Amino acid sequence: MQCVRKQNVRSKSQELLHSAHGKASASDNMRRLGLEGDTDLQFLLNGGDLLKVRSNSWKKNRYYKLQEDCKTVWHESKKTFKSKQTFSVEEIEAVRTGRQTEGLKKYTEDAVEGRAFSILFKGRQKSLDLIASSDEEAKKWVSGLVKVVSNTNNLTPQKKTEHWIYSCMRKADKNLDKKMSPKELKSFLQHMNIEVDDEYAKMLFEKCDASNCGYLDGKEIEHFYKILTRREEINVIYGEYAKTGGLMSAADLQNFLLKEQMEDVSPSDALQLIDKYEIDENAKAKQLMTKDGFLMYLHHPEGLIFNPTHKSLYQDMNQPLNHYFISSSHNTYLTEDQIKGPSSTEAYIKALVKGCRCVELDCWDGSDGEPVIYHGHTLTSKILFKDVIRAIKDFAFKTSEYPVILSLENHCSVEQQQIMAQHMISILGSALVTKPLGDKMPTCFPSPEELKGRFIVKGKRLGKLEDTFSDEAKAADDGSVTEEEDDEEQEKSKTSKSLKLAKELSDIVIYCKSVHFHGFEDSRDKQSFNEMASFKEGQAVKLAEDSANEYISHNTDKLSRIYPSGLRADSSNYNPVPLWNAGCQIVALNFQTPCTEMDLNQGLFLQNGQSGYILKPSYLRDRATEFDPITLTRGPWLKQKILHVMVISAQQLPKVNERKHSVVDPLVQVQIYGVPADTTMKQTQYIENNGFNPMWNENFQFEVCVPDLALVRFLIEDYDSTSGNEFIGQNTLPFNSLRNGYHHVPLLNKNGDLLSSAGLFVHIMVVHSE
C-alpha cells in the first residue's frame, strides 16, 4: 500500500469519494488507467447488446456495460430488466476473437466468425461466449476489454490502492451524499477488512471531524485518508537512512542498499532508482528520494523478494533433456474431478500458458472414425483429439519456447491410432519430431535448446530407435499400449492388453518410448536412453524413500514420469517434492486443482523465465553420485545456510467471507519444503480483526542443509479456533531465489493468480552456517 504525497492527498481523497457517483467518476477512472479519451473504452462505458451463447437452445440477448469504476462489468436482461454484477476485469484471463472456444464452435455457424468473441476467466469459472451485432462492434468490445485488462494489470501499487479504497468508499456511502457519517465510516472500515470497536471508531471520527458537523467532507476526508494510508514500518526504515534534510540522497539510498539489502551497488545505480521511481519531480530534479518514491521502489521488481535475475532465462539450456525438472500435467483435459467432470481444450490452453511442458492425452475410439479424449469408463465429457492438437499447436509456445511432450495414453484401435498419427503430422507439421536430430543414431537426449519450438510424442513404440528407417508390419502386438494401470483399473484395462499398435503412430515416438519398469538393474542393463517408465505415485514414493540413491542414478540418463493414484477421483495431488529430490523429471500433477502441491509446482517453475525447464543440481545429474536426500551424507549438496525471516506486516488482505461484518484474523506461516531434514514450518500469532494493515514484527530462524532443493512458502490464513484456519493468500519461491533485506511478497490466490493489492512485508537474511 502506498503512502500519499502531501501535495496530492486532498485531490486524491476528494476524487475518491466525490467521483464515486455520476459522470465525473468515469473520466477520473479512465485517466487513472491511462485511457482518457479512448474511444474503445468509451464504447464499453456506453454499453451495448450482445448475444450470450450457452447451448443450441440457450442464446439470449443481454445488455452489457462497463461500470464507471472501469473495473466491473454489469449486464441487464431485456426480459426482466434486472441488472446484476457479472464480473470484474481483474478476473479476466484472456479475450479471444472469433469462434475459438468449444461452445462457439459447437453452437454457432461459420457466418458469425467476425462477430463472435469469448471472455476467458481465471480459475474454474466458465468462459463467456458472446456475439455482437456487427464485426465492427465485436472489434470494439475486444479492443476495449483488452486495453482495460492490460492497463489494470499494469497499474502501479499506488493506483491499485486508490482504486480499491474508492470501491470501498462507494459501497459505504449508502445515501449517495458524498459525505461520510459515523455509521458509514465504520461500514467503510469493515469493507476494507478492519474491525474496530465503537469507541475507537468514535475517536477516529472525532479526530477527523474538525468542523464538528457530524460527518466528514472535503479536508476531513483528506485527513482520514492520510491516517488510513500511513505505513509506520516504512516510516521507521526510511527515517533511519533519510539523512539529507529528511530525504534520501543517492548516497543515502546506496547506504540502505548496501547495508540492508546487501546489494553491491554504485552511486549511479542509486541515482537510476531515484530517476525511475521518484514521483515528486522537484525531489527528482535534486536527485533526492521521498518516502513515497522509496515505497514505490519497494513495490517494484527491484524491491520484491524474488531475485529479478531469476525471472528471465538464466540456466544452461544445452544439457540433455533428462537433466531438467519438467513442468508436467496429469489428465490435462479435465477441468474438475475424474468421474463426471468436463473435458475441455481450454484445460490444455491454461496449462500451457502456465508454462506446462508435458501434457497428457487419454485417447479412445470415437464415433465417425474420430478419436476422442476423455477419462475412460467414467462420465467425463469427450473432446475430439484433433481439436486438442490444434489448441496445443496454437498455445504451446505462448509462455515458453521450449519443447512440449505429448504423453499419450492410447486405448484406440489400430485404425483410429492411424488417424491420431495423421492429425499430429498434418496439424503440427515440421514442429513434430519424427526422427532423431542429426545424421547419426543418438546415445543421449538432445537439449531443450536444440528442441525449441518442437513437439515430442511419448508413447509405445515398435522395436528400437535404430529401426527408425526400417520397414515393419503395418501393426504389431506390443502388449498393452497403455501405462496407467492402477489397481482399481486392472479389470477395466484388460481389454487394452490385446490392442495392437499402429506403425504410423509408433514411428513418431522417438525420444520418449514408454516401457514398463522391472527394477533398476534391468533398466540399467537393458534399456536404451530413450526408453522411459511411468510410475504411479505410491510406487515412486516408496522408491524415493527406500532406494533414493538408485533412483537418482537411474534418473541421470533416463526420464521418469510420475502420475497420481487412480484413487484420487477428486483430482487431488500428491507432494511432488520427494520425487524432485530423487531426480524425477516429469512429476505430473492435476493442474486443474488449486492446492498446496500446485503452489509448490508453480513456485519451482517460477524461475528460469517460466520456461517449464529447471536444470537439476549437478549431484542429480551425475551417475556416480552418492547423494541421498534421506541420509544426507557429506558431499557438495551440503551448503548449510541459516535463514532469518522477520514477518513485519501485511497490506489489504482479501476477505475470506464476503459478508459485510466478516473481518479476518490473519496469521502467517513460513514453510520450508525440501529434503526431510529441511522440511519445517513456523507461524506468527494471529492479529484480531485486521486484514487491512496487520503488523506482527515476529522473527524466525531456519537451518537449511540443501538449499538447492528447498522451496520457501509464505502462507497467510484466517485464524479460526473452531472450524480450522482458512486460506487467504500465499507465495512460494525457490530458496536460492530469495533476496536479502526488506521486501514485499506479492500474494497469490488459491488458483495461483495475483491478488492485485494484497502483499506481505518481510525482512530476509541468509547467512552461511558455521
Automatic annotation (TrEMBL):
Residues 160-195 form the EF-hand domain. Its EC number is 3.1.4.11. Binds 3 Ca(2+) ions per subunit. Two of the Ca(2+) ions are bound to the C2 domain. Residues 43-150 form the PH domain. Substrate binds at residues 52-79, 458, 460, 534, 561. It comes from the Eukaryota. Ca(2+) 5 binds at D718, Y719, D720. The keyword Membrane applies. InterPro entries: C2_dom, C2_domain_sf, EF-hand-dom_pair, EF_hand_dom, PH-like_dom_sf, PH_domain, PI-PLC_fam, PLC-delta1_cat. Glycans are attached at S211. It is a peripheral membrane protein. Ca(2+) 3 binds at N331, E360, D362, E409. The active site is at H330, H375. It catalyses: a 1,2-diacyl-sn-glycero-3-phospho-(1D-myo-inositol-4,5-bisphosphate) + H2O = 1D-myo-inositol 1,4,5-trisphosphate + a 1,2-diacyl-sn-glycerol + H(+). Residues 1-28, 473-497 are annotated as: Disordered. Its main location: cytoplasm. It is an enzyme of class 3 (hydrolase). Residues 480-490 have a biased composition (Acidic residues). It is found in: Cytoplasm; Membrane. Its cofactor is Ca(2+). This is Phosphoinositide phospholipase C. The lineage of its organism: Eukaryota, Metazoa, Chordata, Craniata, Vertebrata.
